[in-house]
Amino acid sequence: MKTDLWRRCAARYLVPQLPGFQVGAGALLYREPLEWIFCGVVVQPSRSADQFGLQQHVQLLAVPAQHIVGPFGERMRPPGGRGFWNTPSSVADAGPEMAEIVEAVKEQSIPYFDELGTTTGFQAAIEELARETPEDLHYQEAVFCTRLINGDAAGALDAAAAVAALAAHKDAEWARKAADRVSTAAGQLRTDPDAAIRTLRAHTETSRKHLRLPDPS
After folding, report:
1. Helix, strand or coil for residue 89?
2. Alpha helices of the chain — where are they, by DSSP H?
3. pTM for this one?
4. Do 34 and 61 contact (CB within 8 A), yes or no?
5. How far, in Å, CA of 85 to CA of 113, rounded?
6. At residue 41, what are phi and psi to the nearest 5 degrees?
7. Per residue in 120-165, pLDDT tens?
């Protein structure tokens, strides 16, 4: 489904039926507010131009990213066991498919967003992943950020130490940048917690800029 057609269909059929949702740049439908976490529906292409898929996605914006990234994304399920929705020929013909998507968002996406779309919910989920895969530096950075945001200074410093230890064994530029981000915020946390939060807010603004999301209202 082409981006322009999706955006026009979403604006006409989805937003009026889904309070709090807005059409984002590209093929995004996101839920407000956009303070620390992005909750949205992303259009996914199929092998056929006549069909398209949708994925519900939750992303911590405090970890700078240029794209939609994991780990919290799930394929949405059309009714009747189908794998994809049918691409409408025009906005005028899109009503039936869009009505199905409204129900899918209500039944699948909103509960998913309610569970993971708060800083406490996201922290609980990322902490579990970090326990299961402690060598994953991405998870550990997200643990650091959510602990800091949620006011757990001691826990955040523990996570910062884990990030530093993991990065020391990785010969990759992305790992060095992650370690530098966490080290900077952790150093601020020890002397000026407000400065550490401002650093995470700056990272959040970077993510919003790359994803072309508006500032939080």
Report:
1. coil
2. 3-9, 95-104, 110-116, 119-132, 137-149, 153-167, 173-191, 193-211
3. 0.93
4. yes
5. 21
6. -110, 130
7. 999 999 999 999 999 999 999 999 999 999 999 999 999 999 999 9
